[in-house]
Amino acid sequence: MEKKKSLIQYLMNEVIGTDNRFLFFSWSAAVGIILILGFVLSSQSMTMLGVAESREFQVSFDGPVEIKHVHVMPGQNVKRGDLLLELNQTDLELQLRTLKARFDKLSAEIKLREEISTVTKDSVHLPEGADPLKTELNDTRKEMELVERKLRNLYVFAEVDGTVGAVNVKDGERAPSFAALVTLLPLQPSFVNGYVNENLQSTIQIGQKVEVASATGKSVQGTVVSIGTRIVQIPQRLLRIQNLQAWGREVVVKIPPTNDFLLGEKVSFHKPWGIKVFSTAEANAESLLPASARVVTANLRYPTSITDQFHPEISGMVFLPELRQFALISDDYPDNKPLLLLMNDKGEVQENMLEIEGLPEMEDIESVSLNDQSLYLLSSLSATKKGHLKPGRQIFAKVDRDGIRFQLDEKLDMRLALLNAMRTSPDATLRDIAAHALGNEVDDLEIEGHAIQGDILYLALKRPHLVRNQAIILKVNSIAKLFAQKSLDPKDLSVFVRADLKVPDSDAEIKVTDMILDQDNFYLASSCKGDKCSAIWRIGLKDKRVELIQEFKVKHLESLGFHPQTHDLFGVFDSKSKGQYIVLSAGTL
To answer: Are 295 and 538 in contact (CB under 8 A)?
Structure first.
């Protein structure tokens, strides 16, 4: 330590000198200031300018297509997942039938050849790929799979929120390969097209994070995805000194889909440096995803075109895969004419409601389900509060669907069919249910949910209450037989399960409000009478074990529906003033 002190004293006294100390410190400070200014100025020179833009989306196909129906018009705002076009499937179905006929013929020929070889004991084992029949059979199978995939893609949906630019086709027209059928302009920019001066081109790299900001103070974090390979003239709008021309390379920066920039807005971007105190949005969609386990509650948003007609009281929901939206039903409609409302996964109800042709009247619809190409609707089967058994409240309807067109296939009086079967059933529980179906507000038959698996129908009872807080699920063995005979054989009706429901810290009476079936589990919705509570329950299809999945401190959970793509469970709460929806992620379940 003393050696260091002596060295410093030697430098100060002998090298610098006592008379030059002030001059030394002044020069040292000047050099430091110059270095700091150089760093700051060089950092500022790394700020590049660009324009926030978005690429136009074009809907086209690699083969000729026939347009069945156009669902949008130029200038119309659409949301991600909204239906744009519906294609005709006639040619594809004919092609698929031809391929299936060829496949069956080849399969029969191979089978016949194998049987002949077995009889004559003259079998020859050819190496893989050397058998022409099997090769043709495999090729035919691949062609069938390709056509089947095309058949599943007959509905064209908007990939982003945006505005429809051009619609170049009409209903019934045939469009050639690669023709732009519809163009879609996103509402928000998705990238920045900027320029880096040729003198700075080596200081930025693909994959690098940059801070993107506008003159109004809006900022996000983006990622450099492209750097040009040639020197071009920088547009005058992006020059720092308007009359001084400059050249550089184009740089494309991807920015998050959710940003506050305007299309065409001038922005700047630069490499971030220093400690990050506040994190900004990443230009990676996966980083915007929520955690795996979550429960989200938000208000339903109805357009005024619907609320001006009536306030929906949502009682059931089911996901329509072709439309990528939920079909909602209400237990009350103007003039009792049933309509399907469409809701996306953000709780936004679409303006257009879908009619069911051939079903002009159906009352108190409490549940809806989907099985193959058929939609099933079930009324409550109960009497009115005044004790009237109206025919419109006793309907079980099967509806055929073709895209967004729904047509009644058949219907029956389900209350009559059930009660006739119950009264003559050997099962004492079923006879007891029939005995309590008196058509009054205390004792009656009321069904709030149903589910279908294959040809089997399950029914969830809300009333009668044979045992307090016990749910009863009935099983009907054959839907096809039920509709064919318009009656129910007592042998085809049974009690599937009697499940005790208990909400912790509440002794309120629990009523079942909906039921759905997802693979090996039933999911029941319930609401409390006289207390603010609702719940979701899971009952095993095989072991019949009852689990409480989620409890809510609010009543009137009226409907459930699974989103097959995300495996999230959606629910809707109903009230006279507003509706809410909830999302339970697969991680929560």
So the answer is: no
The reported pLDDT for the residue numbered 281 is 37
- Pick the closest to residue 10 from 2, 31, 29 (CA basis): 2
- Give, as one character, the DSSP assignment of residue 525: E
The residues near 211 (Cβ < 8 Å, ≥ 6 apart) are: 219, 221, 222, 269, 270, 271, 272, 280
Cα–Cα distances in angstroms (integers) from residue 254 to residues 56, 221, 258, 415, in the given order: 15, 9, 12, 59
Residue 458's closest CA among 527, 523, 535? 523
Residues 6+ apart with CB under 8 A from 239: 245, 246
Instruction: Give the whole-angstrom CA distance, residue 470 versus residue 461.
Output: 10
The SS3 call for residue 18 is helix
Question: Is the distance from CB of 524 to CB of 536 less than 8 angstroms?
Answer: yes
Residue type, 522: F
At residue 343's C-alpha, the angle toward residues 87 and 579, to 5°, is: 165
Token pair of 484, please? Answer: 């064919």
Mean pLDDT in consecutive groups of 10 residues from the start of the chain, 589 residues: 57 57 68 64 61 84 81 85 78 77 85 76 62 82 76 74 88 85 86 82 75 87 86 85 81 86 86 42 34 64 86 91 86 90 85 88 94 92 90 94 85 96 95 92 90 95 92 94 94 95 84 91 91 90 91 88 85 72 61
Cite the beta strand spans of 228-348 per DSSP E.
232-233, 247-254, 266-270, 295-299, 314-320, 325-330, 339-343
Q: Are 140 and 95 spatial neighbours (Cβ–Cβ below 8 Å)?
A: no
- CA–chain centroid gap for 448, Å, is 26
First-last CA distance in the chain: 68
List the one residue out of 429, 324, 408, 352 whose CA is nearest residue 80: 324
Q: In angstroms, rounded to a whole number, what is the distance separating the alpha carbons of residues 26 and 534?
A: 77
Contact 61, 176 (CB under 8 A): no
- Decide: 562 and 319 in contact? Cβ < 8 Å: yes
Q: For residue 110, with 0-12 CB atoms within 10 Å meaning exposed, 13-18 middle and 19 or more buried, which class applies?
A: middle
- Reduced to 3 states (helix: H, G, I; strand: E, B; else coil), residue 414 is helix
Residues 6 or more apart whose CB falls under 8 angstroms from that of 486 comprise 412, 413, 417
Helix (H, G, I), strand (E, B) or coil at 74: coil
**Whole-angstrom distance, CA of residue 135 vs CA of residue 141:** 10
d(CA 130, CA 136): 11
Angle at 355 between CA 350 and CA 358, to 5 degrees: 170
CA dihedral 270, 272, 278, 279 (to 10 degrees): 80
Of the candidates 497, 496, 498, 489, which has an alpha carbon nearest to the alpha carbon of residue 425? 489
Q: Per the structure block, which two tokens stand in for 435?
A: 């005995």
* Cβ neighbours, 10 Å, residue 375: 23
Q: DSSP readout, 425-468?
A: -S-HHHHHHHHT--SSSSS--EEEEEEEETTEEEEEEEE--SST
The answer to whether 81 and 324 are in contact (CB under 8 A) is yes
